[in-house]
């Protein structure tokens, strides 16, 4: 039986203490925001709220769930997250699979070109001109197509595909399968861990879309949730539908609780994805980053 030395015990205690402090630094601000979203406007403005709600109330969430522009922005974000992630995974797999096979003659040059994009990225102005010339201004495609393939995710997926036995691919070709059928029926079913891991990365990126929407979207009806949230946070006052007199005093006197409720609504959905993909997440990253 392996004995733990005193030095290892000290290191384990130090390591656990450090990780616990780091976890608290990331978790406690979220708890504070949640507590403010469930507190009265008076408690929030007077600074009485720390980690527990003061004068518990649901009125901030009632406002959020009854606000049509917020729901529209939420729908836009869900749309670009789902469709954009599917486009990302399809495009990344379509590029990573051929360059992972030894028989593809030009694979080294393709990998080099992708590597260059990791080191040298195009500035904002050329990107803006390109989006404009492609006719994607004020279109949700501008938030999904330009970043269809991430160079880092491409290398992770390529490394995973390279570990699939070549004999399996060759046997499928002997049986008459084309490359697309091999990719769809053999390679992708074996790649669930890496697809789940990269899917999370892509989905989080789309969910947090902010700068691209500011640059390319001028229509408020097409703003994603993060842009709408930024508009509410930077505003000193929150616009209220005149017919919604229930929230008029709250929005004009103390909009902080409403802002915190919107932050929670924008954060919770993407966090809920992790438990369902957790068992694939670590495995996909570890396997995809190792080259045999």
Descriptive account of the structure:
The protein has 2 domains: 57 residues, no CATH class; 162 residues, MetI-like fold (Orthogonal Bundle), CATH 1.10.3720.10. The protein contains 15 helices and no strands. The C terminus is likely disordered. Its main location: membrane. Belongs to the binding-protein-dependent transport system permease family.
How is this structure best summarized?
Residues 74-277 form the ABC transmembrane type-1 domain. The chain crosses the membrane at residues 70-97, 109-129, 141-161, 182-204, 257-277. The protein is mainly α and 292 residues long.
Give the name of the CATH architecture of the largest domain.
Orthogonal Bundle
Specify the helix fraction band.
55-70%
Taking the sheet with the most strands, its summary is: none
Mean pLDDT: 80
**SS class:** mainly alpha
Distance between the termini: 32 Å
Number of distinct helices: 15
pLDDT below 50 for ≥5 consecutive residues: which ranges? 288-292
| Count of DSSP strands | 0
CATH names the topology of the largest domain as: MetI-like fold
Task: Name a few traits of the molecule.
Carbohydrate ABC transporter permease, 2 domains, mainly alpha, 292 residues, MetI-like fold, transmembrane, 15 helices, 0% strand, disordered C terminus
Topology of this protein?
Elements: H1 6-37, H2 41-45, H3 59-65, H4 68-100, H5 107-119, H6 124-133, H7 151-162, H8 166-174, H9 179-190, H10 192-207, H11 211-216, H12 225-234, H13 248-253, H14 256-271, H15 273-288
Helix pairs in contact: 1-14, 3-14, 4-7, 4-10, 4-12, 7-15, 10-15, 12-14
């Amino acid at each position: 039986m392996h004995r733990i030395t005193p030095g290892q015990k000290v290191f384990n205690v130090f390591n656990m203490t450090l990780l616990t402090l780091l976890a608290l630094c990331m978790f406690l601000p979220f708890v504070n925001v949640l507590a403010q979203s469930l507190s009265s406007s008076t408690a929030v403005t007077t600074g009485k709220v720390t980690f527990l709600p003061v004068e518990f109330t649901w009125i901030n969430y009632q406002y959020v769930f009854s606000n049509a522009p917020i729901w529209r922005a939420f729908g836009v974000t869900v749309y670009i997250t789902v469709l954009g992630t599917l486009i990302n995974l399809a495009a990344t797999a379509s590029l990573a699979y051929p360059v992972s096979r030894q028989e593809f003659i030009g694979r080294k040059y393709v990998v080099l070109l992708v590597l260059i994009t990791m080191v040298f990225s195009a500035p904002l102005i050329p990107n803006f001109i390109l989006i404009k010339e492609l006719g994607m201004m004020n279109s949700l495609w501008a938030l999904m197509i330009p970043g269809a393939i991430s160079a880092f995710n491409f290398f992770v997926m390529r490394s995973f595909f390279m570990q699939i036995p070549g004999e399996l691919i060759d046997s499928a070709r002997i049986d008459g399968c084309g490359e697309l059928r091999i990719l769809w029926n053999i390679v992708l079913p074996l790649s669930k861990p890496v697809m789940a891991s990269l899917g999370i990365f892509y989905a989080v990126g789309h969910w947090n879309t902010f700068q691209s929407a500011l640059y390319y979207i001028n229509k408020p009806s097409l703003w994603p949730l993060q842009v709408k949230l930024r508009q509410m946070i930077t505003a000193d006052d929150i616009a209220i539908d005149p017919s919604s007199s229930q929230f008029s005093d709250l929005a004009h006197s103390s909009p902080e609780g409403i802002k915190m409720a919107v932050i929670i609504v924008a954060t919770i959905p993407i966090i809920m994805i992790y438990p369902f993909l957790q068992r694939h997440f670590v495995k996909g990253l570890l396997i995809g980053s190792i080259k045999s």
